[in-house]
Amino acid sequence: MSKQTNNIKPANKSTDRYDAFSVREYQVKGEIKHDWSRIGAAFPNADGKGFRIQLHALPVDGVVVLRLYEAKPDGE
Length: 76
What we know:
mainly beta
């Protein structure tokens, strides 16, 4: 039996999105630091059983970190 597509839910709120990052660790004067590069976003599927991930870059080490989207306050 084929899946029905007539029960499509409205688009998710922007708060339901995750930002995708590639995180590079480096050292400065003995101190470990991290460089976070935003490489895309992930959005929950309408059925709540997964995510759609859109990447505009791929991390060299193959690791993608997803963090819940947080809107920046005005003026930043």
